[in-house]
Amino acid sequence: MATVGRRTGPWPALLLLVCGCTLLRLCLARANILHQKLQKNSHAPPVEPGQPLRVMIGIYVESIGKFQSTEMSFDADLYLYMNWKDPQLAHNEGEYILINDPKLREHIWMPDLYFSNSRSAKFHDVMVPNFSIFVAEDGNIAYSGRLTITVACNLNLVNYPMDRQKCQIRTLSYAYIANKVNITWFSKEPIRKNSAIGLPEFVIDEISPSYCDGTYRYAFMDHSYKEDRFSCLEVNIYLRRAIGYHLVQSFTPTALIVIISWVSFWIGMIPNPYTQMVKRARPPSQRREPIRNPIQQNEFIRTGFEYSRKGLTVDKYSRIAFPVAFLLFNVAYWWYYLWYLTEFPVE
Predict the structure, then answer these.
(1) Where are the transmembrane segments (predicted)?
(2) Same domain, 92 and 120
(3) What residues contact residue 232 under an 8 Å CB cut-off, 6+ apart?
C-alpha cells in the first residue's frame, strides 16, 4: 500500500528568508553605525582635557639581518602593536569590531610614530595591506601592522673580531609633544623576538626596551623655533661577534705558521738532504769560491766554528723562549678579550 507524503507548504522557506533578511539588516546596521562614527571622528588625537593621550607600544622582532660594516646599518622585520583609547569609537556591539579596510583606516586617528634613526621603512602589502584594527566596546583600539626598516647603527670595530655591539631602534611621535601624546611600552613583555633568529656574524645576547625622552626643537621659522619635551622609546639590541668563523679562518692558520717556524731551531749545522738541495739550487754567482790559501782556510774554519757555536746556543735558548713568549702572549690576549672586556666593557 503506497504512502502519500504530507505537504508542508512554503512556510519553512519563508521562515529562512525572514531570518536571513533579519541577519543582513543587523549586519548593515552595525556597519552603518561604525561608518557614522568614523565619519564623525576627527583627525585630532582624542585627548581628554588636562591629560595626554597614552599610546602603549609593543614590538615583535621577526628577523634581523644584513649587517653591513661599510654601510653601518642593518635590516629588521617587525610587527608593531599599538593600543590607545578613542571614546568616539565606543559601541555596544558586545564584541570587538575588526577593521582591515584601508579606506576605513583613513577615518581613524592613528599615532604619528616614526623611527628617528631609520634610513628607510615600508609597510608590507602582500597580498593585502598587512594590518588589523580591533575596536572594543569602550573605544579601546588595538592596532597591529608589519613593517621592514633599515636602521643606522654605528659599529665600534676597535676590538674586532671579538667586538660587542649595541644597536638601537628609536621611535617617537613626529608632531605631538609629550603633553599631548605620551607613548609608553607595554607593561608586560613589550618586546618579543623570534627564537629562530640566526645571524652569520653575530650572536644576539639580549633585546631590551628603554626610554629616550628628551627635549627637542621643532616648528622652525626664520628667527624662532619651539622647544618642548617628546616621549621616545628605544629597542636596544646587544650583539657579540661569533668567534667561530674567525677562529677557523684566521687564528688557527696563523698559529700553525708561527709553530712551524720553530722547526728551524732544531735544524743543526750538519748538512742534510734539505740543506744540500738548497745549496745546489743557488745560482753560481751566489756560490762561494773555494779558498786556496791554507792560512785563510784555517781562519775561515775557526771563525765558522765560533759562529756555529753561538748559533747553536741561540737556537737552544730560542727553543724555549719562543714557545713560552707565544704562550704568554696568548694568555694575555685571550684573557683581555674574553674576560676583561666582558667584565669591564669599553663604551
Answers:
(1) 251-270, 317-337
(2) yes
(3) 116, 170, 171, 172, 183, 211, 212, 213, 214
